[in-house]
């Protein structure tokens, strides 16, 4: 029989990204959690954690995580049927920054009208979220890849559109006076200060440069600024140009605070919702909320 006490410790340590925080969440000492995970590893015949920063599950650990997800869903269903207690199990999902900054709060509002389950969101790039789901760290994710993971399902949500924006102040400083507008070339824009969120954001900007502008990708003038709110603010304050979701800056464009540098050049990124095939009413409700809100927001 599996050591479910050890499995709980293993799951929480990964959820919180370390033994100290996992122990705090479990109201145990770090030493006690470490010993429980060692006993778990002994009982299953191999290591379950790769002790790096951040911690990662081994292939065996990934299988155990998927098992823990299923058990938590079954326990919640049993508790509801028997009335043992009203504690709702958390649902863990991986979502990218741009979705979090634009429409996922509407998903949360819709879901929380029906369910008490806490939603634990792992913030990751849309190119990485599916891998996180495959590793068993989450129950669902939003990804730009449509192929379902083993033991899961996926549905296409729509297209997230991106354009290159800059403020009037930035345009006047680097290109021309606003009363004398002219067409910009991709090359001169790319020679001015730009913005990347992090190393994963390179893929998005590369796609925009090659597919929309038809140029060889370049990032030598880009600042790195890993903040969704700060990313748009950097463009608004005239520091950089930035590739932003059109949904995020609708009001700013309408006010003239941001201007699309190439109005007819928009990059469309397909988004898909993935979820594990579990008998979970809460996960079903979350899936329905995601699909309904995405239908309103995405084209």
Assigned CATH class of the domain at 160-269: Alpha Beta
What is the mean pLDDT? 90
Radius of gyration: 22 Å
Count the DSSP helices. 13
Oligomer: single chain
- Looking at CATH, the homologous superfamily of the domain at 160-269 is Periplasmic binding protein-like II
Structure, briefly:
The protein is of the alpha/beta class and 299 residues long. It has helices at residues 4-16, 19-26, 30-44, 59-82, 97-102, 104-112, 129-134, 168-174, 186-190, 201-213, 228-236, 250-255, 281-297; strands at residues 49-50, 56-57, 91-95, 119-123, 140-143, 152-166, 194-196, 222-224, 242-245, 259-260, 267-276.
In words, what does this structure look like?
- By secondary structure, the protein is an alpha/beta fold.
- Among the domains are: 1-61, Arc Repressor Mutant, subunit A (Orthogonal Bundle); 160-269, Periplasmic binding protein-like II (D-Maltodextrin-Binding Protein, domain 2, 3-Layer(aba) Sandwich), CATH 3.40.190.
- It has helices at residues 4-16, 19-26, 30-44, 59-82, 97-102, 104-112, 129-134, 168-174, 186-190, 201-213, 228-236, 250-255, 281-297, and strands at 49-50, 56-57, 91-95, 119-123, 140-143, 152-166, 194-196, 222-224, 242-245, 259-260, 267-276.
- Strands 3, 4, 5, 6, 9, 10 and 11 form a 7-stranded mixed sheet that branches.
- Helix 10 links the parallel strand 7 and strand 8 (222-224).
